[in-house]
Write a structure and sequence with these properties.
Length: about 150
């Protein structure tokens, strides 16, 4: 006998999220429900795993858009199985390593320079003498962005 559909309250309780969170996930296309005769949402039991994957990814700093893109790559929009999780987590692992390198670069730059390309800090190792960055048409933390791009390509 197949498992019975779950109410939004049951899914929320079992997944440790608010009902409004499930509504939000559904609005964003991360999970799906059907409506019963009383127009109430009902979820397939595999929604529990899908919500768990979403929560785990969010804890890693993966954005909902990145999660949506990853889940959309699954055949027939299915819930990730063990092999799917291995592929998803492997891709996120690479992305997180890149972010870690960028954060380490930022951390290491904070004590001496923020990479803003300013003209005022004469002791800054990235001092923008004679405003040579103006020729690039660059604004903001341009030098730091350049350092991060180099670090990301390592």
């Amino acid at each position: 006998m197949p498992h019975s559909p779950l109410s939004v309250g049951q899914v929320a309780k079992r997944c440790g999220v608010k009902v409004s969170t499930l509504h939000f996930y559904e609005e964003k296309g991360l999970i799906h429900s059907v409506r019963n005769a009383g127009n109430q949402r009902r979820y397939k039991p595999e929604t529990l795993r899908r919500v768990s994957v979403i929560k785990a990814a969010q804890k890693l700093g993966i954005t909902l858009e990145e999660i949506k893109q990853a889940l959309a790559g699954l055949p027939d929009n299915r819930t990730p199985d063990k092999d799917d999780w291995a592929a998803l987590s492997s891709g996120w692992h690479r992305m997180l390593n890149q972010r870690i390198r960028q954060l380490e670069n930022l951390r290491d730059s904070l004590t001496s320079c923020i990479g803003c390309g300013c003209l005022s800090l004469t002791n800054c190792p990235l001092y923008n003498k004679d405003d040579h960055l103006a020729d690039d048409g660059s604004d903001g933390a341009v030098l730091l962005n350049r350092k991060n791009k180099k670090a990301a390509n390592l």
